[in-house]
């Protein structure tokens, strides 16, 4: 078994894993753990190196993201479509080309509505 998780849409890492499974070790199955797809915009670090998570979204008075706003809904739609594109154009074709069978486990940042695609 070759297991990896938290790909977050990293094509190069996925390619290396599948190459390793096919050509380096005798692997019976590739298991990909949660957080497979890309996260979307708004993740990263600011100029001072501090982690920035969704700082562009409106906040409530307590400082937490206001998920009821149009901006938050647009962000969620963008994330869903970004993952859908990655699953259909990258993940599924790469897994289909690999001679080693695979299993995908969705994580908390993977959209459940995309599960049938994987």
TrEMBL record:
SUPFAM superfamilies in UniProt: Metallo-dependent phosphatases
GO molecular function terms attached to this record: hydrolase activity
Residue ranges occupied by any Calcineurin-like phosphoesterase domain in the UniProt entry: 1-110
Protein name as annotated: Calcineurin-like phosphoesterase domain-containing protein
């Amino acid at each position: 078994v070759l297991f990896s998780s938290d790909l977050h849409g990293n094509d190069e890492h996925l390619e290396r894993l599948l190459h390793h499974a096919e050509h380096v070790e005798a692997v019976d199955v590739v298991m990909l753990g949660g957080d497979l797809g890309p996260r979307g915009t708004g993740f990263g670090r600011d100029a001072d190196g501090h982690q920035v998570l969704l700082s562009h979204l409106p906040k409530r008075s307590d400082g937490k993201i206001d998920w009821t706003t149009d901006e938050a809904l647009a962000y969620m739609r963008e994330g869903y479509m970004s993952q859908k594109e990655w699953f259909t154009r990258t993940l599924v074709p790469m897994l289909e080309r690999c001679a080693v069978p695979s299993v995908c486990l969705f994580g908390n940042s993977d959209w459940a509505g995309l599960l049938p695609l994987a």
